[in-house]
């Protein structure tokens, strides 16, 4: 009998050991030390979501009707097509399902994050054009419509047959579909922010009963203009409301929307994100200059200031910052009119 050669034995051992010590394990354990930038095949983005289980970043593009998938090192893995008007993204708590608001398809898609296949598409009604999403318990809340014919609806996922309800707030409350935000740290709460008026309203709804009940509401909180981004601290006690004005970033107490801290940045704030470790990333719409200010929670001076693409005239996208779930990476999107976007992965 012919004995197997050394090369064959090594090959068999490699196949046996790969599941234990394969590339995915090595990549997950390797710390990032330098920023990485990746050119993306899109010129617009509407939202981002991070998946801790699969270590994936999802980027929705409402223009091409697609969702890009990258790993946590910024490598582009694939593009999920046939997502008309992909406008907002929400992950299920177990990261098994990615929900996509299809503003061009009058529906919400449910994508399996393991296979990237669409496992369900829930119709929200003709002409609804769902734009923003927030998940509270087993219910997906969505804003929809256009101009003053905008409202908030819900998709109850708890039963065998998910059900849609529309017009859950008085008509005329919103001048367009509001930005929505929720957090597992604030169960039964959905936050809505006006995107279409210069004097913006922010309302905190109690949705624990199945209907949105106003807990607190304020017009033009802290002098913020139209809302371009909302972000919550890990404990959901503090809400960041971002508009182009005033020229600093404001942190509010979620309970009553009173200002609790001012983070000194500069003109035209357009993004905010807070890591699990409490690091605040404050973004600026600045074509030539610094784009991101990093603060420890409650600090009066930044610990770091970043110019993402010096001298290029490109700027940070509104709503264009998000942290990895473990707080080790900050993802940022930059672009300019008509040009493709760049994804930046910045080690904390």
Would you mind describing this structure in some detail?
The structure is a single chain. By secondary structure, the protein is mainly beta. The protein is 7% helix and 45% strand. It has helices spanning 6-21, 23-29, and strands at 36-39, 47-51, 56-61, 66-71, 76-80, 86-91, 97-102, 107-112, 118-123, 132-136, 139-146, 149-156, 163-165, 179-181, 189-193, 201-206, 213-219, 229-232, 238-242, 249-253, 259-263, 269-274, 279-284, 292-296, 304-306, 315-323, 329-335, 342-347. The strands form 7 sheets. Strands 1-28-27-26 form a 4-stranded antiparallel beta sheet, with no helix packed on it. The chain has a 4-stranded antiparallel beta sheet with strand order 2-3-4-5, with no helix packed on it. Strand 20 (249-253) and strand 21 (259-263) form a beta hairpin. The relative contact order is 0.11. Mean pLDDT is 92; it is low at 1-29.
